[in-house]
Amino acid sequence: MDPINITVVGGAGIVGREFLKILDERQLPVGRLRLLATSRSAGKQVEFRGNTITIEETTEGSFDGKDDIVFLSASGSASKLYAPIAAEKGALVIDDSSAFRMDETVPLVIPEINAADLAWHQGIISQPNCTTTPMALALFPIHQVNPLKRIVVATYQAVAGAGAAAIEGLKTETAAALEGRHEPSGTQKKEIAFNAVPQVDDFSDDGYTKEELKMANETRKIFHAPELAISATCVRIPAMFGHSAAIWAEFERPIDPRAARTLIDQTEAVTVIDDPEHERYPTPLDAAGKDQVFVGRIRQDLSNPGGLTLWAVTDSIRKGAATNVAQLIEACDSRGLIKRKG
After folding, report:
1. Does residue 130 carry a catalytic annotation?
2. pTM score > 0.90 for this model?
């Protein structure tokens, strides 16, 4: 792979920093690297491959036509503003926000599932929400041979999904609670220490949160299955890293848990840890710092003879975000979709 000029918008954030680490781990050749952020973070310095990079403030004039890839790891409003500008300047934009996920002209891609959709991009590629990715990867191997009819899922999401401030908020609240004090940090909808909050993102008129609707709509788009029935409940828990999901899945035909386990375990992106006899199953700590989705507790759904129940966990900052971006870059490069500026 030839060197790639990369600009990261949100370079001071938790996902942006992890992305730099993953570039190194995967040995992606980088030409020019720029880190952009809000005025609050401008001027901070980051080390990358022996070089010191000063973070610059993001403006509409930040995109000079020399970027091969622009990775947007910022708010949806920032993505809506800057993504079209960067794409117009000739960059291939990969966006981590929800701004373009349901845009019919923008592919929404998990490389292990629907990399072929990259071919019809028009300058912007979107990647899924950090809870959609592990569920999709866990179920897709079965869906390929036995199509899904219905999914019910409940998530248990670490605070890292809300950013670095939320991690610090959990630390502060936990320390206060251990001293008998309640000091909400304001980083979550409710106090999170020693608690579980059944609200991630804002509520919609139908009573679902936007996070729950993202999981449903994004999975349908990625699977090319517009009729797939999905209902989600998303819960924030007081864990630092790692999102977990309890999944109930119904398929067109009944499937034996052993056959399902074999199909899932054949997928490179998924590792099965499922040994009830020895009490082996994955937890968020098992996934921390790793790129796989870990799946366990695969069993027959006793309430539905055509269904399975399973448990999936992943590091939401890595495969749920930064690693998927690196893989998208690799997939685009292998398909000749990156126009290098030299």
Report:
1. yes
2. yes
Active-site choice (121, 234, 243, 332): 243
Question: Which CATH architecture is the domain 4-129+321-334 placed in?
Answer: 3-Layer(aba) Sandwich (3.40)
CA distances to 17, 223, 314 from 136, in Å: 25, 8, 12
| Sequence spans of domains, the chain | 4-129+321-334, 132-158+196-315
User: Could you say which of 121, 130, 143, 234 is catalytic?
Assistant: 130
What does pLDDT average to over the chain? 96
121 is known as an active-site residue: no
Mean pLDDT in residue range 152-162: 95
Q: What is the pLDDT of residue 82?
A: 98
